[in-house]
Structures are given as structure tokens and as C-alpha cells.
Amino acid sequence: MLEVRGLRVAYGGIAAVKGIDLDVARGELVCLIGANGAGKTTTLKAVAGALAPAGGRVLLEGREVTGVPAHELVRRGLALVPEGRGIFARLTVAENLRMGAYCRVDPAIEADLERVCALFPRLRERSRQVAGTLSGGEQQMLAIGRALMSRPKLLLLDEPSMGLAPIAAQSVFSTIREIASGGVTVLLVEQNARAALELARRAYVMESGAIVLSGKAGALLSDPKVREAYLGEGA
């Protein structure tokens, strides 16, 4: 589904992502973990077309999409839920969800809206509410629901639990699992390394713009180096 080869991203003269390779197969849930500033968000933005790579290649379903703008990638089946949610704070919940389908002209939009509201019943209850007045957990539901309205084949999630209370975060993780089990391929960047590794099938560990470890999520969860560096446990 997704192939990243030698991806490099720079801010001015500073290299933020240093030639990384990663793959996400169709139907997989893969996570990318690492410390703040490791380059995880930059990687997602470059894959999603929100940042221009300095080098390397990005392929979606075997087709070159390096440098393709974000709005075109949405049409090709890739959706990003950005760090900080990025909802339209002055629009209602319903208007935000419909904005997620802005590139669609097919007759299934209403059916998909119903499915999103079934996945997130709170959004149905709050459909006429201004999005900026929602709680943090509700805004994260809305950001994910808006992305799903584009009917993505590949969903990129950037720090979905950031700033959420533990109960709200667990609800978000459960929803991500349900989305993945429904056939959507997911690449997850998440600050809660334990939750991400418990959720994912495979994982990559990123440090200082480079991939330093990769493998099955369960194996990395028990790796002494990962436990010490990212789970707060002794080696």
C-alpha cells in the first residue's frame, strides 16, 4: 500500500528526516514511535503531501506520489489526521464532517456520514454544535471522522491521544482498532508508545530523523532498549 524509500526532509539547512525507508502493507496497522523531535510528524506530513521532500520516493499502491499535493492525495485515497486535530473550529460538527467529503461527488456520502456517526455516536449528538466548543476527546473523534469521510484506503494518524484524558485516549485507541479491522490501512504516530505497540502489527522506532529499529510490535514491546527508552522501564 505505502512504500517510502530514502525519504529526506529538511527545514532550511537542517535535516529533519534522513533517508528513511518504511512500508505499510494493505490492511496493516503500523506504528511509528520515538521521542519528541525525532521526525515522526515531519515524516507523516511529507508522505501526505503537506511538505515537499528534499529527496527519496513515496509510492502509494505502487504509483509514484512523491511531491503530489495533499488535496490530490486525498482523491487517491490517503487521509491525514494531523497533530492538534486541525478541525474547523467555527463550523459545526456536521459541517466539519461534510468538509471531509469535499472531493467526492458520489451518491454514498450520506451513507458514509451515517457510518461515521455510528462509529462516534457523540458526533451525532453534537452535530449542530460549533466544533470549537467540543471537548478534546470529541474534537479528536471529529478529526478522525472527517478524515474517514474522504473514504481513505490509507489513514495517517498523528498523535491522536495527545492532550486527552486516559479514558478518552482509550476510547480513541479502541476506535482506531475498529477502523483498522474494517479494512482501512493505518500508519499511526503516537506518543504513548505502549498503547501504540499493543495496537499495531508492526512498528518502526525513529531517532534523530532515522529509523533505528523495526519489527513486529510485540517483539519491540519486549525489547529491553525500547522498554528503557520509551516505556520508562529499566533494561
Summarize the helices and strands and which ones pair or pack.
Blueprint lengths: L1 E10 L2 E11 L4 E6 L5 H8 L7 E6 L2 E2 L5 H6 L2 E4 L11 H7 L9 H11 L1 H5 L10 H13 L5 E5 L7 H16 L3 E5 L3 H7 L2 E6 L2 E7 H5 L2 H7 L5
Parallel strand pairs: 3-8, 3-9, 6-7, 7-8
Antiparallel strand pairs: 1-2, 1-4, 4-5, 9-10
Description:
- By secondary structure, this protein is of the alpha/beta class.
- It has 10 helices and 10 strands.
- The strands form 2 sheets. Strands 6-7-8-3-9-10 form a 6-stranded mixed sheet, sandwiched between helices.
- Strand 1 (2-11) and strand 2 form a beta hairpin.
- The longest helix has 16 residues, at 166-181.
- It is globular.
- 43% of the residues are buried.
- The model has no long low-confidence stretch (mean pLDDT 95).
What's this, in brief?
By secondary structure, the chain is of the alpha/beta class. It has helices at residues 40-47, 70-75, 93-99, 109-119, 121-125, 136-148, 166-181, 193-199, 217-221, 224-230, and strands at 2-11, 14-24, 29-34, 55-60, 63-64, 78-81, 154-158, 185-189, 202-207, 210-216. The strands form two sheets. A six-stranded mixed β-sheet has the order 6-7-8-3-9-10, with helices on both faces. The protein has a four-stranded antiparallel β-sheet with strand order 2-1-4-5, with helices on one face.
Structural Rg: 17 Å
Give the N-terminus to C-terminus distance in angstroms.
35 Å
Largest sheet: 6 strands, mixed
Biggest sheet, spatial arrangement of strands: 6-7-8-3-9-10
Give the tally of β-strands.
10
Net shape: globular
**SSE arrangement, N to C:** EEEHEEHEHHHHEHEHEEHH
Low-pLDDT parts are none
How many helices in DSSP terms?
A: 10
Report the β-strand fraction as a percent range: 25-35%
The whole-number mean of residue pLDDT values reads 95
